[in-house]
From TrEMBL:
Its cofactor is Mg(2+). This is Ribokinase. The keyword Transmembrane helix does not apply. It comes from Nocardia kruczakiae. GO terms for molecular function: ribokinase activity.
């Protein structure tokens, strides 16, 4: 079983479903509303755990009504919370609008995630004990860099999902072993990604591709009836990390299958499939 340390964001997702997303200045009627625990870091942590890895989470929640619920969802999914701190103020939120095709628009407010400005000795110990340290960009970049440097110092692989895409310091890219990007991020970060040993690019319903020392690989994806694409990329990344030790081809198959299954259920963390569900789909 792989051991993964996730250093990242945890949010409460505020999800509205509507027939179509509004244009600028337009009001449309929604059909449903729900609050669903999410955040790229938490989603990826839960996805990795459900895919079979042992996972510890380093992050921050607020003192608002969402904080206790966010901590509980990690614990209920058997994700270690020794690195989860509580800071004064609001937890992170993501306002998500999903249309009838399953496509979404998302606005993220960092809240407590922005307060994750440094690592404790306990955080560093979790990273040092892990096989893979998994990060995204919904927390301060300096914290991501510190976590990556800690991982490198202890022989822990660094997997970065550089989303939301932005300019990053060269020393962070130098510490990255594996990058997971979508097609838009791949185009935006093309020059930086050339320095990364392993690069995986997600292609929505068309699956994903890999480039690295193993050569080039592609997985065509899994045909499903799409309900909501929220969290599918995070599910892909978490499952990939959980099975990376089995080689890029196996990890890619697990990741594509998990990501596809996640689109069949509404919500982010609520849609993440279990290892048993992924194995059944892989066997079909």
């Amino acid at each position: 079983m792989a051991r993964i340390a996730v250093v990242g964001s945890i949010n409460m997702d505020l999800v509205t479903r509507t027939r179509r997303r509004p244009r600028a200045g337009e009001t449309v009627l929604g059909t449903t509303f729900a609050t669903v625990p999410g955040g790229k870091g938490a989603n990826q942590a839960i996805a990795a755990r459900r895919a079979g890895a042992a996972v510890d989470f380093v992050g921050a929640i607020g003192t608002d009504v969402f904080g206790a619920e966010l901590r509980k969802v990690l614990a209920d999914n058997e994700v270690g919370t020794a690195g989860l701190r509580t800071v004064e103020g609001s937890s992170g939120t993501a306002t998500i609008v999903v249309d009838e095709t399953g496509e979404n628009t998302i606005i993220v407010v960092g809240g407590a995630n922005a307060a994750l400005s440094d690592l404790t000795d306990g955080d560093r110990a979790l990273i040092a004990d892990a096989d893979i340290m998994l990060c995204q960009l919904e927390i301060p970049v300096d914290t991501v860099l510190g976590a990556a440097r800690c991982a490198r110092d202890h022989g822990t692989l660094v997997l970065l999902n550089p989303s939301p895409a932005r300019s990053l310091p060269p020393e962070l890219w130098e510490a990255v072993d594996i990058a997971v990007v979508n097609e838009g991020e791949a185009a935006q970060l093309d020059a930086e990604l050339r320095t990364v040993t392993h690069v995986l690019t997600t292609r929505g319903g068309a699956g994903a591709s890999y480039r690295g020392p193993e050569g080039e690989l592609a997985h065509p994806g899994v045909r499903v009836e799409v309900v909501d694409t929220t969290g599918a990329g995070d599910t892909f990344t978490g499952a990939l990390a959980a099975h990376w030790h089995e080689g890029p081809a196996t990890a890619l198959a697990w990741a594509c299958t998990a990501g596809a299954l996640a689109t069949t259920v509404v919500g982010a963390s609520a849609s993440i499939p279990t290892a048993a569900a992924i194995e059944r789909a892989l066997a079909e």
